[in-house]
Specification:
Order of helices and strands: HHHHHHHHHH
Radius of gyration: 19 Å
Structural class: mainly alpha
Number of helices: 10
Length: 191
């Protein structure tokens, strides 16, 4: 039993890497098998198909992400810092979400109902924590803050072109301070 769980974990880890690099269409089971040390038959036995494996990777990755991001602190700055750190330290999460957006668009995505419920809870928590007027205001605020926090990680080539040579630290500081000010404005000055 322990070996089966370890094999499943190796497959998920290798698949996360593969899907984040190549997306669902470009990912190859052969490369996942080689990287995980499992044969293709074991992958199909565990996940059914490449699509099933992608769904499992998304569920696994988002579960880890929700454990991290779901624990923001007491202020708007804490929330933004947590989001930025998550995307900086877990670039595969952002890449997987971007691939998912390209692959599915507005069609149903893996674990959509579970993920919808998670976001409903986050929206409600944000509304209560910051005294926002409505659920719609809270949802819009969370969407915007996620976007602001994730954008530099989503567009590394643009970030590289925008930052003057030798100014990376100054850019990071300026970007962080600006997003903090925006978050405080959006979420109100209560915290």
């Amino acid at each position: 039993m322990r070996d089966a769980e370890a094999t499943r974990r190796r497959i998920l880890d290798a698949a996360r890497e593969e899907f984040s690099k190549f997306g669902p269409a470009g990912a190859r089971i052969n490369r996942i098998a080689a990287a995980s040390g499992a044969n293709k038959e074991r992958i199909y036995a565990n996940f059914g198909s490449k699509e099933g494996l992608f769904e499992a990777v998304m569920s696994d990755t988002l579960a880890a992400h929700s454990d991290t991001v779901g624990k923001w602190g007491e202020s708007a700055a804490d929330l933004v810092d947590r989001l930025q750190q998550t995307h900086e330290h877990s670039p595969e999460l952002l890449r997987l979400m971007l691939w998912e957006a390209l692959e599915f668009g507005s069609d149903p995505v893996p674990d959509e109902e579970k993920r919808r419920e998670y976001y409903r809870q986050r929206v409600s928590a944000l509304q209560k924590a910051f005294g926002l007027d409505s659920e719609a205001d809270s949802a819009a605020a969370l969407m915007m803050l996620i976007g602001l926090a994730a954008w530099p990680a989503a567009m590394p080539q643009l970030k590289k072109m925008l930052i003057p040579e030798g100014q990376a630290a100054a850019f990071e500081t300026a970007q962080c301070e600006l997003v903090h000010r925006i978050a405080k404005t959006v979420l109100g000055s209560k915290r």
